[in-house]
Design goal:
The complex is a heterodimer.
Chain A lengths: L1 H22 L18 E3 L7 E3 L8 E6 L4 H15 L5 E6 L3 H11 L6 E4 L3 H5 L7 E5 L5 E6 L4 H16 L1
Parallel strand pairs in A: 3-4, 4-5
Antiparallel strand pairs in A: 1-2, 3-6, 6-7
Chain B lengths: L1 H10 L5 H41 L10 H11 L18 H15 L4 H12 L14 H27 L17
Helix pairs in contact in B: 2-6, 3-4
The chains are: A alpha/beta, B mainly alpha.
Chain lengths: 174, 185
């Protein structure tokens, strides 16, 4: 009997580790930017190429930055959730229109509704890289001091809003 | 090592099912221990093939690099970085949009005179150590770096200890040969 204990123990340890490994989503890479100041940006808006927004313009308020694109499939799923959330006026949502074409982006907003106060137009995706974006959609919650407090990789769902984002917003709004 | 195992096996009598069970188990252990080695071989051959293959597609889309030497440096840096979109490829190999953008970033930064260390820092401040195929040795990577070696040393140590223990055991400690064992027939 005793001679089975060691292999059994090893088997169980392996099974536990492999089982834990199954729970991890390898596509979710934790961002090193959480708790760090958001990267600087100065980008034209999607609606008006003459108007631009800088990071400094956003200081003093809690805001959400949602990275989206008209070519992004998962954004289609997320969009109605954002439109609904924007209607509740909990937090200003800004968009980062990532590696998109202006007419495509504008057409998308006309068709699906516009949840954004403004969308920044990141044509070459450089600001996306500064934010560590690697898959669209991604969403950041940024506080009054311009520090990134949360990053959602993949679409925002009602559950994510309820369990993650809204509690954080309540805490940030004090 | 395998020869010695066979030899021991032959001396102790081939018919003992208990012994066979043990060796099956030991073999499993040994193959588990040798696994990092074979993974290493696989990784080495992959790296080699990548190194040999990379000049072939180094020529794609390079608006800024007319300079083959810089392009080679760029590919050398990019082949140490993990593509975040298709995670089992390097940024040098991947055709994902982000990988192309990041290669362009490396080109531009090389042109600005940045060194490899600075470029790697640029990548890790945005994407974390995950982007490095060779992460630094830190608390949470110690096992990654030294685990396979420890496992191999531990496994070989266990094998050595066990073989010595069995060599010292008297013949009575083992099950007697059964008459229906194949080579008794």
């Amino acid at each position: 009997m005793k001679r089975f204990l060691l292999p059994l123990g090893i088997f169980l340890a392996l099974a536990v580790f492999l089982g834990l490994g199954l729970k991890h989503d390898p596509r979710e890479v934790p961002s090193p930017l959480i708790g760090k100041p958001a990267p600087a940006f100065n980008l034209p808006t999607l609606g008006d190429a003459q108007r631009s927004l800088r990071k400094e313009d956003m200081l003093g308020k809690v805001w959400m930055l949602n990275v989206w694109a008209s070519w992004c499939g998962a954004c289609r799923e997320e969009h109605p959730v954002l439109v609904e959330f924007a209607r509740r006026n909990v937090v200003p949502i800004y968009g980062l229109n990532y590696k998109d074409e202006r007419p495509d982006g504008l057409a998308w907003l006309r068709a699906g509704g516009n949840p954004y106060v403004e969308s920044l137009f990141d044509h070459d995706g450089r600001i996306g890289i500064d934010f560590g974006v690697y898959g669209v959609p991604e969403t950041f919650v940024i506080d009054q001091q311009g520090v990134i407090r949360y990053k959602q990789i993949g679409p925002i769902t009602p559950e994510v809003l309820r369990d993650k984002i809204e509690p954080l917003l309540r805490q940030l709004h004090g | 090592m395998a020869d010695r195992m066979l030899q021991v096996h032959a001396e102790r009598g081939p018919g003992s099912p208990r012994l066979l069970g043990w060796f099956g188990w030991l073999g499993g252990w040994l193959s588990l221990c040798l696994r990092p080695v074979s993974v290493l071989c696989l990784a080495l051959s992959l790296v080699l093939s990548c190194l040999l293959a990379s000049p072939a597609h180094a020529g794609e889309a390079q608006p800024l690099a007319d300079n083959p030497e810089q392009e080679a440096r760029m590919m050398a840096i990019a082949s140490e970085l993990r593509c975040l979109v298709c995670q089992n490829q390097t940024i040098a190999d991947s055709h994902a949009g982000l990988a192309i953008d990041l290669r362009q970033q490396i080109r531009e930064q090389l042109q600005q005179g940045k060194n490899e260390q600075q470029i790697r820092e640029y990548m890790t401040t945005r994407y974390g150590n995950f982007i490095l195929y060779r992460p630094p040795v830190e608390g949470n990577t110690v096992l990654l770096w030294f685990g396979p070696g420890l496992l191999a040393v531990g496994g070989l140590g266990f094998l050595w200890w066990n073989l010595r223990r069995r060599a010292r055991m008297s013949a009575e400690a083992f099950d007697p040969d059964t008459p229906d064992a194949p080579d008794q027939a």
